[in-house]
Amino acid sequence: MSAPHVPVKRADFDQVMVPNYAPAAFIPVRGEGSRVWDQSCRELIDFSGGIAVNVLGHCHPRLVEALTEQAGQLWHVSNVFTNEPALRLAQKLVNATFAERVFFCNSGAEANEAAFKLARRVAHDRFGPEKHEIISALNSFHGRTFFTVSVAGQPKYSDGFGPKPQGITHVPFNDLAALEATISDKTCAVVLEPIQGESGIRPAEQAYLEGVRKLCDKHNALLIFDEVQTGVGRTGDLFAYMHHHVVPDILSSAKSLGGGFPIASILTTQELAGYFSVGVHGTTYGGNPLGCAVGGAVLDIVNTPEVLNGVKARHEIFKTRLQQIGAQYGLFDEIRGRGLLIGAQLTEGWLGKAGQVLAAAEKEALMVLQAGPDVVRFAPSLVIDEADIDEGLNRFERAVARLVNQG
To answer: Over pLDDT 70: what percentage of the chain?
Structure first.
Protein backbone atom coordinates (compact mmCIF):
# COMPACT_ATOMS: atom_id res chain seq x y z
CA MET A 1 0.00 0.00 0.00
CA SER A 2 1.35 3.39 -0.97
CA ALA A 3 1.65 6.15 1.60
CA PRO A 4 -1.01 8.87 1.50
CA HIS A 5 -0.10 12.02 -0.40
CA VAL A 6 0.90 15.00 1.71
CA PRO A 7 -1.28 18.01 0.81
CA VAL A 8 0.63 20.69 -1.07
CA LYS A 9 -0.17 24.18 -2.29
CA ARG A 10 1.44 26.74 -4.56
CA ALA A 11 2.82 28.67 -1.58
CA ASP A 12 4.98 25.65 -0.72
CA PHE A 13 7.07 26.39 -3.81
CA ASP A 14 8.35 29.57 -2.20
CA GLN A 15 9.36 27.65 0.93
CA VAL A 16 11.14 24.60 -0.48
CA MET A 17 12.17 25.27 -4.09
CA VAL A 18 15.13 27.21 -5.47
CA PRO A 19 13.57 30.47 -6.78
CA ASN A 20 14.86 30.23 -10.35
CA TYR A 21 11.28 29.79 -11.61
CA ALA A 22 8.11 31.79 -11.02
CA PRO A 23 5.33 29.28 -11.71
CA ALA A 24 1.70 30.21 -12.17
CA ALA A 25 -0.61 30.46 -9.20
CA PHE A 26 -2.36 27.16 -9.93
CA ILE A 27 -0.99 23.60 -9.87
CA PRO A 28 -1.99 21.26 -12.71
CA VAL A 29 -2.72 17.76 -11.40
CA ARG A 30 -4.18 15.86 -14.35
CA GLY A 31 -4.07 16.05 -18.12
CA GLU A 32 -5.81 14.30 -20.99
CA GLY A 33 -5.27 15.26 -24.62
CA SER A 34 -5.19 19.06 -24.77
CA ARG A 35 -7.07 19.58 -21.51
CA VAL A 36 -5.58 20.07 -18.04
CA TRP A 37 -7.22 20.14 -14.61
CA ASP A 38 -5.85 21.93 -11.57
CA GLN A 39 -6.23 21.21 -7.85
CA SER A 40 -9.64 22.89 -7.76
CA CYS A 41 -10.84 20.73 -10.71
CA ARG A 42 -10.81 23.75 -13.01
CA GLU A 43 -10.38 22.65 -16.63
CA LEU A 44 -7.95 24.53 -18.91
CA ILE A 45 -7.11 24.17 -22.60
CA ASP A 46 -3.39 23.72 -23.16
CA PHE A 47 -1.85 25.69 -26.04
CA SER A 48 1.59 25.61 -24.37
CA GLY A 49 2.40 21.93 -24.81
CA GLY A 50 4.84 21.95 -21.91
CA ILE A 51 6.93 24.43 -23.96
CA ALA A 52 6.67 22.46 -27.21
CA VAL A 53 7.25 19.13 -25.44
CA ASN A 54 3.86 17.41 -25.21
CA VAL A 55 3.80 16.61 -28.90
CA LEU A 56 0.85 14.21 -28.52
CA GLY A 57 -0.87 15.98 -25.66
CA HIS A 58 -1.22 14.66 -22.14
CA CYS A 59 -1.32 10.95 -21.32
CA HIS A 60 -1.62 9.72 -24.90
CA PRO A 61 -2.73 6.07 -24.62
CA ARG A 62 0.07 4.75 -26.84
CA LEU A 63 2.71 6.55 -24.79
CA VAL A 64 1.21 5.42 -21.51
CA GLU A 65 1.21 1.86 -22.84
CA ALA A 66 4.84 2.06 -24.00
CA LEU A 67 6.02 3.51 -20.68
CA THR A 68 4.02 1.08 -18.56
CA GLU A 69 5.17 -1.95 -20.51
CA GLN A 70 8.81 -0.92 -20.30
CA ALA A 71 8.49 -0.01 -16.61
CA GLY A 72 7.62 -3.63 -15.91
CA GLN A 73 10.71 -4.90 -17.74
CA LEU A 74 13.82 -2.72 -17.33
CA TRP A 75 14.38 0.82 -16.08
CA HIS A 76 18.09 1.51 -16.15
CA VAL A 77 21.34 -0.30 -16.88
CA SER A 78 23.66 2.66 -17.72
CA ASN A 79 25.84 2.79 -20.80
CA VAL A 80 28.04 -0.01 -19.52
CA PHE A 81 25.41 -2.02 -21.41
CA THR A 82 23.13 -1.20 -24.32
CA ASN A 83 19.40 -1.89 -24.33
CA GLU A 84 16.72 -2.83 -26.84
CA PRO A 85 14.56 0.35 -26.73
CA ALA A 86 17.62 2.55 -27.38
CA LEU A 87 18.68 0.48 -30.37
CA ARG A 88 15.17 0.46 -31.80
CA LEU A 89 14.77 4.24 -31.43
CA ALA A 90 18.22 4.92 -32.90
CA GLN A 91 17.39 2.76 -35.91
CA LYS A 92 14.14 4.65 -36.46
CA LEU A 93 15.94 8.00 -36.36
CA VAL A 94 18.63 6.80 -38.75
CA ASN A 95 16.01 5.44 -41.15
CA ALA A 96 14.03 8.69 -41.09
CA THR A 97 16.81 11.29 -41.36
CA PHE A 98 20.22 12.11 -42.84
CA ALA A 99 21.87 10.59 -39.79
CA GLU A 100 23.97 7.46 -39.64
CA ARG A 101 24.72 7.60 -35.92
CA VAL A 102 22.76 8.70 -32.82
CA PHE A 103 23.85 9.79 -29.35
CA PHE A 104 21.21 9.84 -26.60
CA CYS A 105 21.17 12.14 -23.57
CA ASN A 106 18.52 13.73 -21.37
CA SER A 107 17.83 17.35 -22.34
CA GLY A 108 18.25 19.87 -25.10
CA ALA A 109 21.09 21.55 -23.25
CA GLU A 110 22.94 18.24 -22.99
CA ALA A 111 22.35 17.54 -26.67
CA ASN A 112 23.78 20.92 -27.66
CA GLU A 113 26.67 20.52 -25.23
CA ALA A 114 27.48 17.24 -26.95
CA ALA A 115 27.12 18.81 -30.40
CA PHE A 116 29.50 21.65 -29.57
CA LYS A 117 32.02 19.30 -27.99
CA LEU A 118 31.88 17.00 -30.99
CA ALA A 119 32.42 19.91 -33.39
CA ARG A 120 35.48 21.08 -31.47
CA ARG A 121 36.85 17.56 -31.20
CA VAL A 122 36.48 16.98 -34.94
CA ALA A 123 38.24 20.23 -35.77
CA HIS A 124 40.99 19.61 -33.20
CA ASP A 125 41.77 16.16 -34.53
CA ARG A 126 41.52 17.12 -38.20
CA PHE A 127 43.14 20.54 -38.24
CA GLY A 128 44.69 21.26 -34.84
CA PRO A 129 43.76 23.30 -31.73
CA GLU A 130 43.58 26.66 -33.53
CA LYS A 131 40.38 25.62 -35.30
CA HIS A 132 38.02 25.88 -32.35
CA GLU A 133 35.85 28.96 -32.92
CA ILE A 134 32.05 28.65 -32.87
CA ILE A 135 29.73 31.15 -34.52
CA SER A 136 26.18 31.51 -33.25
CA ALA A 137 23.33 33.93 -33.88
CA LEU A 138 22.40 36.88 -31.73
CA ASN A 139 19.30 36.23 -29.63
CA SER A 140 19.66 32.47 -30.05
CA PHE A 141 19.00 29.98 -27.26
CA HIS A 142 20.75 26.63 -26.89
CA GLY A 143 20.31 25.54 -23.28
CA ARG A 144 21.35 26.38 -19.73
CA THR A 145 24.74 24.74 -19.23
CA PHE A 146 27.57 27.26 -19.04
CA PHE A 147 28.88 26.27 -22.47
CA THR A 148 25.44 26.42 -24.14
CA VAL A 149 24.42 29.76 -22.61
CA SER A 150 27.76 31.15 -23.73
CA VAL A 151 27.21 29.93 -27.29
CA ALA A 152 23.69 31.38 -27.26
CA GLY A 153 23.49 35.05 -28.13
CA GLN A 154 21.67 36.34 -25.06
CA PRO A 155 24.02 37.82 -22.43
CA LYS A 156 21.21 37.95 -19.85
CA TYR A 157 21.56 34.19 -19.51
CA SER A 158 25.36 34.01 -19.49
CA ASP A 159 26.51 37.14 -17.61
CA GLY A 160 27.35 36.94 -13.93
CA PHE A 161 28.96 33.51 -13.83
CA GLY A 162 32.59 34.46 -14.25
CA PRO A 163 34.85 34.14 -17.29
CA LYS A 164 33.10 32.66 -20.30
CA PRO A 165 34.43 30.00 -22.66
CA GLN A 166 36.51 31.57 -25.37
CA GLY A 167 36.28 31.31 -29.14
CA ILE A 168 32.56 32.12 -29.45
CA THR A 169 31.24 34.84 -31.76
CA HIS A 170 27.70 36.06 -32.37
CA VAL A 171 26.33 37.53 -35.60
CA PRO A 172 22.82 38.74 -36.57
CA PHE A 173 20.35 36.04 -37.57
CA ASN A 174 19.35 35.88 -41.25
CA ASP A 175 22.32 38.11 -42.16
CA LEU A 176 24.52 36.13 -44.52
CA ALA A 177 26.88 39.02 -45.14
CA ALA A 178 27.62 39.30 -41.43
CA LEU A 179 28.41 35.61 -41.24
CA GLU A 180 30.61 35.75 -44.33
CA ALA A 181 32.57 38.62 -42.77
CA THR A 182 33.11 36.63 -39.56
CA ILE A 183 33.67 33.01 -40.58
CA SER A 184 37.28 31.94 -41.12
CA ASP A 185 39.47 28.88 -41.29
CA LYS A 186 39.55 28.97 -37.46
CA THR A 187 35.79 28.37 -37.35
CA CYS A 188 34.94 24.83 -36.32
CA ALA A 189 31.16 25.19 -36.40
CA VAL A 190 28.19 27.44 -37.10
CA VAL A 191 25.12 26.70 -34.98
CA LEU A 192 21.62 27.90 -35.86
CA GLU A 193 18.01 27.32 -34.96
CA PRO A 194 15.93 26.88 -38.16
CA ILE A 195 13.34 28.92 -36.26
CA GLN A 196 14.63 31.02 -33.39
CA GLY A 197 12.32 30.08 -30.56
CA GLU A 198 12.96 31.96 -27.34
CA SER A 199 13.68 35.25 -29.11
CA GLY A 200 10.31 35.48 -30.85
CA ILE A 201 9.60 32.60 -33.30
CA ARG A 202 11.76 33.94 -36.12
CA PRO A 203 12.17 31.57 -39.10
CA ALA A 204 15.42 31.39 -41.02
CA GLU A 205 15.18 32.43 -44.65
CA GLN A 206 15.76 29.80 -47.34
CA ALA A 207 18.59 31.69 -49.06
CA TYR A 208 20.24 32.30 -45.71
CA LEU A 209 20.39 28.62 -44.78
CA GLU A 210 21.63 27.68 -48.23
CA GLY A 211 24.33 30.33 -47.98
CA VAL A 212 25.36 29.21 -44.50
CA ARG A 213 25.77 25.65 -45.74
CA LYS A 214 28.06 26.83 -48.55
CA LEU A 215 30.16 28.98 -46.23
CA CYS A 216 30.60 26.08 -43.81
CA ASP A 217 31.74 23.83 -46.65
CA LYS A 218 34.16 26.49 -47.91
CA HIS A 219 35.81 26.87 -44.50
CA ASN A 220 35.69 23.21 -43.38
CA ALA A 221 33.30 24.14 -40.58
CA LEU A 222 30.45 21.95 -39.38
CA LEU A 223 26.86 23.15 -39.61
CA ILE A 224 24.86 22.40 -36.47
CA PHE A 225 21.09 22.76 -36.43
CA ASP A 226 19.52 23.13 -33.01
CA GLU A 227 16.14 21.47 -33.55
CA VAL A 228 15.33 21.06 -29.88
CA GLN A 229 12.14 23.07 -30.38
CA THR A 230 11.45 22.56 -34.09
CA GLY A 231 12.09 18.82 -34.28
CA VAL A 232 9.84 15.76 -34.29
CA GLY A 233 6.96 17.16 -36.31
CA ARG A 234 6.56 20.55 -34.68
CA THR A 235 6.86 22.46 -37.98
CA GLY A 236 4.89 20.01 -40.14
CA ASP A 237 8.01 18.12 -41.25
CA LEU A 238 9.70 15.51 -39.09
CA PHE A 239 12.60 17.96 -38.76
CA ALA A 240 12.71 21.54 -39.99
CA TYR A 241 15.82 20.98 -42.12
CA MET A 242 13.68 18.77 -44.37
CA HIS A 243 11.51 21.74 -45.32
CA HIS A 244 14.57 23.69 -46.43
CA HIS A 245 16.45 20.77 -48.02
CA VAL A 246 19.57 21.99 -46.23
CA VAL A 247 21.27 19.14 -44.42
CA PRO A 248 23.35 19.83 -41.29
CA ASP A 249 26.36 17.88 -40.10
CA ILE A 250 24.98 17.59 -36.57
CA LEU A 251 21.39 18.01 -35.38
CA SER A 252 20.22 18.27 -31.78
CA SER A 253 16.76 17.08 -30.77
CA ALA A 254 14.89 16.96 -27.46
CA LYS A 255 11.52 18.34 -26.24
CA SER A 256 9.03 16.53 -28.51
CA LEU A 257 11.24 13.45 -28.87
CA GLY A 258 9.94 12.01 -25.60
CA GLY A 259 6.45 13.47 -25.71
CA GLY A 260 6.95 14.63 -22.11
CA PHE A 261 9.47 12.03 -20.95
CA PRO A 262 13.00 13.49 -20.65
CA ILE A 263 15.14 12.36 -23.57
CA ALA A 264 17.35 14.07 -26.15
CA SER A 265 19.73 13.16 -28.92
CA ILE A 266 22.22 14.36 -31.45
CA LEU A 267 22.13 13.00 -34.98
CA THR A 268 25.25 12.93 -37.14
CA THR A 269 27.19 11.00 -39.75
CA GLN A 270 29.28 7.88 -39.29
CA GLU A 271 32.48 9.77 -40.07
CA LEU A 272 31.90 12.51 -37.51
CA ALA A 273 30.63 10.11 -34.86
CA GLY A 274 33.98 8.34 -34.98
CA TYR A 275 35.60 11.31 -33.22
CA PHE A 276 33.54 10.49 -30.12
CA SER A 277 35.51 7.31 -29.49
CA VAL A 278 35.10 5.33 -26.26
CA GLY A 279 35.50 7.55 -23.21
CA VAL A 280 35.55 10.91 -25.03
CA HIS A 281 32.00 11.83 -24.00
CA GLY A 282 29.25 10.15 -22.01
CA THR A 283 26.17 10.28 -19.81
CA THR A 284 24.84 7.99 -17.11
CA TYR A 285 21.17 8.21 -18.02
CA GLY A 286 21.42 8.76 -21.78
CA GLY A 287 19.53 6.15 -23.77
CA ASN A 288 17.50 5.14 -20.73
CA PRO A 289 15.13 2.26 -21.64
CA LEU A 290 12.06 4.11 -20.35
CA GLY A 291 12.72 7.27 -22.36
CA CYS A 292 13.67 5.37 -25.50
CA ALA A 293 10.56 3.18 -25.32
CA VAL A 294 8.39 6.29 -25.15
CA GLY A 295 10.44 8.04 -27.85
CA GLY A 296 9.96 5.08 -30.17
CA ALA A 297 6.20 5.28 -29.72
CA VAL A 298 6.27 9.05 -30.33
CA LEU A 299 8.17 8.62 -33.58
CA ASP A 300 5.86 5.86 -34.81
CA ILE A 301 2.87 8.17 -34.43
CA VAL A 302 4.34 11.52 -35.49
CA ASN A 303 6.30 10.36 -38.52
CA THR A 304 3.19 9.67 -40.58
CA PRO A 305 1.56 11.69 -43.38
CA GLU A 306 -1.65 11.90 -41.36
CA VAL A 307 -0.02 13.67 -38.41
CA LEU A 308 2.46 15.83 -40.35
CA ASN A 309 -0.19 17.01 -42.82
CA GLY A 310 -2.51 17.60 -39.89
CA VAL A 311 0.06 19.92 -38.32
CA LYS A 312 0.10 22.05 -41.47
CA ALA A 313 -3.70 22.16 -41.59
CA ARG A 314 -3.93 23.16 -37.94
CA HIS A 315 -1.39 25.93 -38.56
CA GLU A 316 -3.77 27.53 -41.05
CA ILE A 317 -6.63 27.42 -38.54
CA PHE A 318 -4.51 29.14 -35.91
CA LYS A 319 -3.03 31.68 -38.31
CA THR A 320 -6.36 32.73 -39.83
CA ARG A 321 -8.08 33.18 -36.48
CA LEU A 322 -5.12 34.93 -34.84
CA GLN A 323 -4.89 37.36 -37.73
CA GLN A 324 -8.59 38.13 -37.30
CA ILE A 325 -8.17 38.70 -33.56
CA GLY A 326 -5.11 40.88 -34.17
CA ALA A 327 -6.91 43.00 -36.73
CA GLN A 328 -9.96 43.44 -34.53
CA TYR A 329 -8.25 44.34 -31.26
CA GLY A 330 -4.93 45.80 -32.40
CA LEU A 331 -2.94 43.78 -29.86
CA PHE A 332 -0.61 42.09 -32.34
CA ASP A 333 0.19 42.67 -35.98
CA GLU A 334 2.23 39.72 -37.28
CA ILE A 335 1.85 35.96 -37.03
CA ARG A 336 5.14 34.08 -37.48
CA GLY A 337 6.30 30.49 -37.49
CA ARG A 338 5.46 27.21 -39.15
CA GLY A 339 3.35 24.26 -38.18
CA LEU A 340 2.38 24.42 -34.54
CA LEU A 341 5.20 26.69 -33.45
CA ILE A 342 3.49 30.06 -33.80
CA GLY A 343 4.33 33.52 -32.52
CA ALA A 344 2.04 36.56 -32.36
CA GLN A 345 4.10 39.77 -32.39
CA LEU A 346 2.67 42.45 -30.10
CA THR A 347 2.04 45.90 -31.53
CA GLU A 348 4.13 48.88 -30.48
CA GLY A 349 1.76 49.95 -27.74
CA TRP A 350 1.86 46.50 -26.15
CA LEU A 351 5.59 45.76 -26.41
CA GLY A 352 6.98 44.20 -23.27
CA LYS A 353 3.58 43.00 -22.11
CA ALA A 354 3.46 39.38 -23.29
CA GLY A 355 3.34 38.33 -19.65
CA GLN A 356 0.10 40.27 -19.21
CA VAL A 357 -1.40 38.38 -22.14
CA LEU A 358 -0.44 35.07 -20.51
CA ALA A 359 -2.04 36.13 -17.24
CA ALA A 360 -5.23 37.23 -18.99
CA ALA A 361 -5.39 33.94 -20.90
CA GLU A 362 -5.03 31.96 -17.67
CA LYS A 363 -8.02 33.80 -16.22
CA GLU A 364 -9.99 32.51 -19.22
CA ALA A 365 -8.73 28.95 -18.53
CA LEU A 366 -6.19 28.87 -21.36
CA MET A 367 -2.50 28.03 -21.17
CA VAL A 368 -0.25 29.91 -23.63
CA LEU A 369 3.42 30.91 -23.66
CA GLN A 370 5.61 33.87 -24.47
CA ALA A 371 8.76 34.00 -26.61
CA GLY A 372 10.47 36.98 -25.08
CA PRO A 373 8.54 39.98 -23.77
CA ASP A 374 7.01 40.94 -27.12
CA VAL A 375 5.64 37.69 -28.57
CA VAL A 376 2.84 35.36 -27.51
CA ARG A 377 3.78 31.77 -28.38
CA PHE A 378 1.52 28.83 -29.21
CA ALA A 379 2.95 25.30 -29.20
CA PRO A 380 0.05 22.88 -28.64
CA SER A 381 -0.18 19.16 -29.21
CA LEU A 382 0.32 18.21 -32.84
CA VAL A 383 -2.89 16.17 -32.72
CA ILE A 384 -5.04 18.70 -30.86
CA ASP A 385 -8.72 18.38 -31.78
CA GLU A 386 -10.13 21.17 -33.93
CA ALA A 387 -12.86 21.62 -31.34
CA ASP A 388 -10.18 22.36 -28.73
CA ILE A 389 -8.49 24.79 -31.11
CA ASP A 390 -11.76 26.65 -31.66
CA GLU A 391 -12.67 26.76 -27.99
CA GLY A 392 -9.14 27.74 -26.98
CA LEU A 393 -9.07 30.58 -29.48
CA ASN A 394 -12.47 31.73 -28.25
CA ARG A 395 -11.01 31.91 -24.76
CA PHE A 396 -7.95 33.70 -26.11
CA GLU A 397 -10.14 36.28 -27.83
CA ARG A 398 -12.03 36.89 -24.59
CA ALA A 399 -8.69 37.42 -22.82
CA VAL A 400 -7.52 39.84 -25.50
CA ALA A 401 -10.81 41.75 -25.41
CA ARG A 402 -10.54 42.11 -21.64
CA LEU A 403 -6.96 43.36 -21.86
CA VAL A 404 -7.74 45.90 -24.56
CA ASN A 405 -10.86 47.13 -22.81
CA GLN A 406 -8.86 47.61 -19.61
CA GLY A 407 -6.30 49.63 -21.56
So the answer is: 99
